[in-house]
């Protein structure tokens, strides 16, 4: 028996309201009234964040983005800071990417909140191109550069970045022909735990992941199924446990190309598998971990409810996954190159002064209330 128009309308309405809805927050864009290009960001806390950019510029906020201190490092006007690591509101290390033979491979450090900076490393060695830095603690750190004579260029520090030493050539990871790294977000190198460090590459036929369990003194490497080439491969890495991690990438010449761009490992980086593509698709340069903890005091102990999400960003927009990379949903269309989260508060940066902030993000599906319409 055919349905009457009235019954059909009511049923259609009920179907719409029963559909699960993702409840999310969007990025809030912060206007810094400057057109610098930015690919380096580190959120030390929900309120303190450091940013590195072009023109030798470093930005810092200590009040959640309401106000920003801008530093123009003396003698660094031609430098592009592609990675920054901060220990607190006063101490930070900034790394510039560029050809060393043109005096662009440098590392600076500040101890007074960015008012003054000391040049702690520089080289004019032909072919050196720094890609990223990271630290295990307040003393031990590592810096990655593109291959020299077939081996990745590695620097280490034992004093919080005050001085840097080149890893002996024979201990550096061996690269394949054409293999290199991308200085796009500062996350092609990632430290994890007490001694582990990972490096994601491109440039060759397939993307690979190098790993070390001894602060970068020795290395092993794994091939991945992610295609690579001169402009494509792995751009960003993130681990959320000893065994589980993610790598994102793509092609910086084809930023909206809808090909697989996410890898997952469940065995500490030994093997990697392709998983669901981000939405929107295209190049993803950075991936971060959102973590929100709601705690209720019962009088004796805290009852905790934790929300986690992976967030990936790139020129085509940002995506989030609430199931550890299996499926993705669109989060925003802003073209962020790099992100950093401190718990549930995240900061992201892009070209032409683009800064975003996000908080109060919900990863849970909720059903709208069932509504009956009286026709």
From TrEMBL:
Gene3D superfamilies: YVTN repeat-like/Quinoprotein amine dehydrogenase (2.130.10.10). InterPro entries: BNR_rpt (IPR002860), WD40/YVTN_repeat-like_dom_sf (IPR015943). This is Oxidoreductase. Pfam families: BNR (PF02012). Signal peptide: none annotated.
């Amino acid at each position: 028996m055919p349905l009457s128009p009235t019954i059909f309308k009511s049923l259609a309405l009920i179907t719409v309201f029963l559909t699960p809805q993702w409840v999310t927050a969007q990025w809030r864009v912060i206007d810094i009234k400057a057109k610098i290009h930015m690919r380096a960001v580190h959120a030390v806390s929900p309120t303190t964040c450091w940013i590195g950019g072009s023109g030798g510029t470093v930005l810092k906020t200590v009040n959640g983005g309401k106000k920003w201190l801008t530093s123009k490092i003396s003698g660094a006007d031609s430098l592009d800071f592609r990675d920054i690591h901060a220990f607190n509101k006063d101490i930070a290390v900034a790394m510039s990417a560029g050809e060393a033979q043109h005096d662009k491979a440098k590392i600076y450090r500040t101890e007074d909140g960015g008012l003054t900076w000391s040049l702690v490393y520089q080289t004019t060695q032909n072919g050196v191109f720094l890609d990223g830095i990271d630290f295990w603690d307040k003393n031990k750190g590592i810096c990655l550069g593109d291959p020299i004579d077939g081996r990745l260029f590695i620097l280490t520090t034992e004093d919080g970045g005050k001085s840097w030493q080149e890893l002996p050539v024979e201990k550096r990871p061996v690269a394949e022909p054409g293999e290199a790294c991308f200085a796009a977000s500062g996350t092609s190198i990632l430290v994890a735990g007490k001694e582990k460090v990972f490096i994601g590459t491109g440039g060759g036929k397939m993307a690979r992941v190098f790993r070390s369990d001894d602060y970068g003194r020795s290395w092993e490497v794994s091939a991945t199924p992610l295609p690579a080439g001169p402009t494509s491969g792995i751009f960003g890495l993130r681990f959320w446990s000893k065994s589980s991690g993610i790598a994102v990438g793509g092609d910086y010449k084809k930023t909206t190309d809808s090909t697989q761009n996410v890898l997952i490992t469940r065995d500490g980086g030994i093997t990697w598998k392709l998983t669901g593509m981000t939405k929107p698709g295209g190049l993803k340069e950075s991936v971060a971990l959102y973590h929100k903890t709601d705690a209720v005091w019962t009088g004796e102990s805290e009852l905790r409810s934790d929300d986690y999400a992976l967030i990936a960003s790139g020129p085509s927009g940002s995506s989030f996954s609430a199931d550890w990379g299996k499926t993705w949903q669109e989060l925003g269309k802003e073209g962020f190159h790099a992100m950093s989260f401190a718990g549930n508060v995240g900061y992201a940066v892009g070209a032409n002064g683009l800064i975003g902030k996000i908080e109060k993000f919900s990863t849970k599906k909720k059903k709208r209330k069932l509504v009956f319409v009286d026709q």
